[in-house]
Amino acid sequence: MPFVLGVVSRKGGVGKSTFARAIAIQALIEGKKAAIIDADPQATSFKWSRRRKEKAPAVVQLADRTLADLVAELKGRGAEFIVIDTPPHDQPIINITAEASDAALIVTQPYPDDLQEVGVPAAILHALGKPAGIILNNTPPRAHALTMARAALTAFPMATCPTAITHLMSHPYASAEGQTAQEREPKGKAATELAEIWTWFNSSIIVS
Question: Please, what is the Cα angle at 199 between 14 and 157, to 5 degrees?
Fold first, then answer.
C-alpha cells in the first residue's frame, strides 16, 4: 500500500525541506518508488529538483491543487512513499497535511526558540490520532543542548527519534548539487544517521 508522510514544522529554518528530501531519497535507497509534494510557496524542494540530474523522486508543487488530489494522482502513477513538504508558520496546512497523511514527523532544532514551536503541530497530530514522531535536526555533536532538548521533548505525546541529525556541511553541499547528503557521501555520517532514522520510523512510528 502507498504510504504518505507529512513533514511539518511551525518554525522556519529548522531544515524541514532538507529532511523531507533526505527521507524521500532514503525510501528510494530502500527500494521504494518515492515522490515529494512541495506545499511550500517558496518551492524549496521543487527548485532542488530542477538542479537534480536524476529523475527520481518525482517532485510536484501543490500550487492551486489540493493535497488529496495530488496524493491520489501520485498513487495512480505508482508512488509507494509520498512525502509532503509543508511550509512553516501555517497552521491550516499542518491540519490538512495531517489529514492527508498516514503519519507525520515534526522537525525541530535543539534550541529553546525551536522547541517552543513543537507544541502546536504535536497537539494537532495527537488530536487527529496520527502516528507521529519528532526529529532533532542540525544538532551539535555531543552537546549539552541536545541532552536538554531530549528532556524537554518528553513533554509531548510522541516519541523523539533516538538518532539526531548532526549539523554537517554535507547537507547544504549536497543540496546545491541537487542531491542529498547520503547520495553525495554514501559512507558518511549523514548517510548512517538517515538510515537509522528510516529504521526507527518503520519500526516505531508506522507500526504504532
Answer: 60
Question: Phi then psi for 35, rounded to 5 degrees?
Answer: -150, 155
pLDDT in tens, 125-166: 999 999 999 999 999 877 788 999 999 999 999 999 999 999
- What class, spelled out in words, does domain 3-205 have in CATH? alpha beta
Q: Is the dihedral of CA 89, 183, 164, 98 positive or negative?
A: positive
Inter-residue contact 138 to 15 (CB < 8 Å):
yes
pTM listed for this prediction: 0.94
- Residue ranges covered by each domain of the chain: 3-205
The answer to whether 22 and 48 have CB atoms below 8 angstroms apart is: no
In angstroms, the CA 183 to CA 88 distance is 26
